[in-house]
Write a structure and sequence with these properties.
The complex is a heterodimer of chains A (265) and B (268). Chain A is an all-alpha fold. Chain A is built from 13 helices and no strands.
Chain lengths: 265, 268
């Protein structure tokens, strides 16, 4: 218990640092929220335009897809709030040898590497995603029980864990090649798959994005859960894949960190 | 002229150092492309065979996105705007003020070298993808149309570059330009036709967009290639595209000269 309390107090200190840092550049903080909001709006426009020309994508109706895009955005923003910058910075830590300093700290290195900075603006954008989901639920006249909302949040957490594990694995490539930053940003392309309805995919694409890179589970499963269209095998699959991604990323991290040979100092 | 050819040569060599980055970028870019194509395939599958969305058959829709990817590879600004903003911020432009090299032409040549290097790397995977989807890939109606498409493509590249150059000029006034770059890019992304062909929008919106430079940054050359813009509309469109290129060019020159009045080089 004292161990947990210690980590909580460390994390609280990291939060305090992040808040201070963000408040130095206030205008920039607000502008980044605007940028994210614009891109979110853009995705919603796309849905609007597509549904001018069709009734459904597979069995997904317009407001169901809006709900899906909202959920995918919510998951992405919460992931961004906690992990994204830190994953992206890993290659820089390796290149400059600053990882030395973190390795020497008397805490779990993966903990401090993954959670060093908090991106506060992402919480604001996550809130806009919640508003959009609420509006979509209202349009579908969906009445949700507390149990459903709780289940939805738990499944979203599994989705975030999958995003984190995959991107962290990509970031550890920097232990092998120095310039891995671009590779991490390439992950952004995968977010675009996560917000599309699973029924739009068939064949190899469907298999790849369900089992190898489980983007079609991350947001689709939580949304299907509250829409009551979820089949139980898919729920179990999400949980299993989440656990597997976490386990593999732990393994990769342990193998990678052994290759670390600092930089000249 | 000779000095700019020299810049082109060095620029290509510099850019080719990033060939693996380019390849990774091109391949990862296929993921959202294939995802979008899957969505459209599913939508068309639910319709009767031969049905259209707007004026697009399934093959034309697939071709539209493939062409958008190709045009984008040839004309999109990669990180030139960031580099220009950095040059201004850290004072690297000082050397151009005392050398007989024009900074705008210098950057334009570097932009061209970047596109040449990128396309040299990305062409193979792109052509492979087109080959895999050849069943859905439409060819231009005739060679003349293809020639006009190429002309329009060059104008598109110029327009994209000058607009990015103008935004980068903001670095004379503000410290951090990346948010502005992303905000403009968001508008370009939807209004130039990256997400969907613009003419499936309601007619009034298409007409409204025609008053902005955005369609000429991507949609217009593709519509030429696909034979959707012909005759008088084609001539008029090319004239308007040229008009926007000139407007953007003079605005870029103007922003530069105003910016230089504020510019103070610090240190050496």
């Amino acid at each position: 218990m004292t161990r947990l309390a210690r980590y909580i107090s460390i994390y609280a200190a990291l939060w305090k640092n992040s808040v201070t840092r963000e408040m130095i550049f206030k205008t920039n903080f607000v502008l980044w929220i605007v940028v994210e909001l614009l891109w979110f709006g853009l995705q919603l426009c796309f849905v609007g335009v597509v549904y001018m020309h069709t009734e459904a994508i597979g069995t997904w109706t317009k407001w169901q897809v809006v709900m899906l895009i909202g959920a995918a955005h919510f998951i992405q923003e919460i992931f961004q709030a906690f992990f994204l910058i830190n994953c992206a910075n890993l290659s820089e830590l390796v290149r400059t040898g600053k990882l030395d300093f973190l390795l020497l700290l008397p805490v779990n290195t993966r903990f401090v590497v993954s959670l060093r900075q908090v991106d506060l603006g992402s919480f604001v954008n996550a809130a806009t995603a919640v508003v959009v989901m609420g509006y979509a639920a209202h349009q579908m006249q969906l009445s949700l029980t507390l149990g459903q909302i709780f289940g939805f949040l738990v499944l979203c957490a599994v989705g975030i864990l999958i995003h984190y594990s995959l991107m962290f694995m990509l970031a550890t490539i920097s232990f092998w090649t120095v310039r891995a930053q671009g590779i991490v940003w390439a992950y952004y392309n995968l977010f675009q798959v996560a917000r599309l309805p699973d029924e739009a995919f068939r064949g190899m694409l469907k298999i790849t994005f369900t089992f190898a890179i489980p983007m079609l589970l991350v947001a689709n499963v939580p949304v299907r859960f509250i829409l009551d269209t979820l089949r139980w095998p898919n729920l179990l699959l999400l949980l299993a894949v989440g656990a597997a991604c976490w386990a593999v990323s732990s393994l990769v991290w342990h193998v990678s960190i052994r290759r670390y040979t600092s930089a000249s100092s | 002229m000779k000095k700019y050819l020299h810049v082109l040569n060095i620029g290509i060599q510099n850019n080719l150092a990033y060939r693996f980055n380019f390849l990774a970028r091109a391949l990862f870019g296929f993921i959202p492309l294939l995802a979008l194509l899957s969505v459209w395939r599913t939508i068309y599958a639910a319709k009767s065979p031969g049905a259209t969305v707007g004026t697009y058959t399934l093959a034309e829709m697939v071709s539209y996105y493939l062409l958008a990817t190709i045009v984008n590879a040839l004309t999109a600004v990669h990180d030139d705007d960031w580099q220009i903003a950095n040059d201004i911020r850290d004072g690297a432009i000082s050397q151009f003020l005392i050398k007989p090299i024009d900074y705008l032409w210098f950057r334009l040549v570097l932009f061209a070298s970047g596109r040449i290097a990128y396309f040299a790397v990305a062409a193979a995977p792109l052509l492979a993808l087109v080959f895999l989807l050849r069943k859905y890939f439409v060819l231009p109606p005739d060679m003349v149309t293809f020639g006009i498409f190429l002309v329009s493509l060059v104008l598109t590249a110029l327009l994209q570059f000058f607009i990015s150059y103008i935004i980068a000029m903001l670095a004379f006034w503000v410290l951090e330009v990346s948010t502005f770059i992303f905000i403009v890019y968001a508008f370009e992304f939807i209004a130039s036709g990256h997400l969907f062909p613009l003419d499936i929008l309601p007619a009034w919106l298409v007409r409204a967009l025609a008053f902005t430079p955005f369609p000429y940054e991507l949609f217009f050359p593709i519509s030429i290639y696909m034979g959707k813009t012909t005759g008088a509309a084609l001539a008029e469109g090319l004239a308007i595209q040229l008009f926007w290129v000139l407007v953007a060019y003079f605005a870029a020159r103007f922003a530069w000269s105003r910016g230089l009045r504020r510019y103070t080089a610090v240190g050496g």
